[in-house]
Amino acid sequence: MRSLLPALAVLLLAQGCATTRFENAPLEAGRTNVERRAVDVSHPDRPLILVALSGGGSRAAALGWVVLRELQKYRYTSSDGAPRALIDDIAVVSSVSGGSVIAAQFALYGAAGLDRFEPEFLALDNTRTLGAEALNPLHWVTSALGGTSRSDLVEELLDRELFGQKTFAELNQPGKPYLILNSTDMASGEVFAFTPKRFDDICADLDAQSIASGVAASAAVPVIFTPIALRNYSAERCARVAVPSWVSNRLKGAYAPYVNVDAFRLARYANDLRHGPDSFRRIDYLYLLDGGLADNLAIHGLLEALSSPYAAPIVAPAGAPGGAGGTVLQAINSGRVRKVAVIVVNARADPAGKISQSASRPGILGMIGAVASLPIDSASGSVNAQLDSLLSQFNAAGGGAPPGVAGEPQFAGLKVYAIEIDFDQLRPGDPAQRALRDQAKEIPTLWTITGPHLGVIERAGTTLLHQHPCFQRLLSDLAIPAEFVDLTFARTGCRQAADQ
Description:
Layout: H1 5-14, E1 39-40, E2 48-53, H2 57-73, E3 75-77, E4 83-85, E5 90-95, H3 97-109, H4 114-122, H5 126-135, H6 137-146, H7 150-163, H8 168-171, E6 178-185, E7 191-193, H9 196-201, H10 211-218, E8 228-231, H11 234-237, H12 245-252, H13 256-259, H14 261-273, E9 285-290, H15 292-295, H16 299-307, E10 314-315, H17 328-333, E11 339-346, H18 364-397, E12 415-422, H19 431-441, H20 451-466, H21 469-477, H22 487-499
Parallel strand pairs: 1-10, 2-5, 2-11, 5-6, 11-12
Antiparallel strand pairs: 3-4, 6-7, 6-9, 8-9
Helix pairs in contact: 1-5, 2-3, 2-4, 2-20, 3-10, 5-7, 7-10, 12-14, 19-20, 21-22
C-alpha cells in the first residue's frame, strides 16, 4: 500500500478534470442475456459443492487456490462408474475482492488452470507493477484526457497475466461452474453481481463485458482504487420492457416489507435499476466498489444463486418433477440432491497491531486500513448469520436429524457439510499451529504475496481443510481414503457444526 501512495496522490489531482469511461455495452433491441450454465442435479449420489471465496488481496487469492487444489486431489467413483474429483462437483462459486481473481481463473480454465495460477499471478510482484504503471507520465495523460482510472491499471494487469482480454461470453458456457463476481453499488450499498439476470436489470450485454472488469469491480478497494463505472441503459434501450412480476408482486404486497425485508429490498433495487414505477432511487450510472463492503465472505451470492429470482438454473434427471426448471433449493426439497457441501474460504487477517497500545493518534495509513476493514468485517458477520440460516434450511429440507446413534450426522435423504476455512481454526494448543495462525494473520492485504508468505498460506490452508470434521466426513461418506480422517471426530464434529 505504501508504495502506491505517491502515485495515487498524483492521480487524484490528474483525475479531477477527467471524463468517465463506462465499461459496458447495451443489449440489442429485444434481446436479453442468455444463461448457458446450469447446476447439474441429475446424479443424486454426487455431492453438490458450493464455494464462497472471501476478500483479502493476494492472500485471499492464494488461500482459495490452495483449497481448490486440494479438492482436485481427492477422487471417488460415481454410481455410473465415472471417476470424479471433488473439484468436478463444484457447481457455484461466489467471490469478492482478492477471492474473485482465483474464482474467475478457475471458472474460465477449470482445474487444468490451477497449476498456472502461481507462476502467472501469485509469483509476480503485482504491487510494484501497479505502482510503476501509476507513476508513468503516459498514464497521467490518458487518465486526464481519456477517462481511464487507477482501476484500469488493475484490469490491464489481470488481462496481461490471466484473462487475455476474454469476456464473460467465455465464462457463460455449458459445463462451467456458475460464477458470481460480487461488487458493491457505491450509491445504494447493495450487492451488484456480474450475472446475466442482473445485467438484464441495466439492459447491458454481459457477454461483451470483459472478465477483468468484473474482477476489478469486485476488488476496487475504496480510496486505493477508483470505482468501476457502468451505464444503466434501461431508460433508453429497455423502456418498453415490463418489470418482472416478482418485482411488482413484492413491492405491492402490503405485508412484503414485514414478512421478508431482504426480499423486499431485492425487489426494490431491481425496480430502481429498471427505472420501474415508483422507483425509490433513480439510477442512471453505477459506480462499483469492492464487494467486501457489503459481504466479505461472498455468501450473499450463494444465497441468491440457490433460491432467489436470480437463482442459477438446474438440470434435473429425465422425468424428474419440474424437469430442467426450478432452483437448487427446490431440487433439495424434492430429494434430487442428497449431499451438499458449502465451503466458505475466509482469508480475513486481523493481526494484533499496535494502534490500541499507542497514545499517538493513528495516521492516514492506519485510518485507511480501518475504513477498509471495519465495515467489511461487520458486513461479514451479519451475512454469516444468513449462512447459518441457509444451513438450517438445508437440514429442514432433509427432514431434520432423526433419532439414531449419538453423534451420527444423518438426515432424511440429505447430508450437509458446512466447511468454513478460517485462520482462527488453527489450534492454539498446538505450538506449530499457533505460530502458523499468527504468521498467516500478519500477511498484508496487497496485490503481492512473497514466497515465504505463500508457503505459510499453503501450510495453513491444507491443515485447515484436512482437520475440518465436515471435510473428513465428506471424504468418509464418499469412501475416499485419507490418512488424516478420524471417523469419530468427523461424525461428532460435523453433527455439531450442522446443529449450531
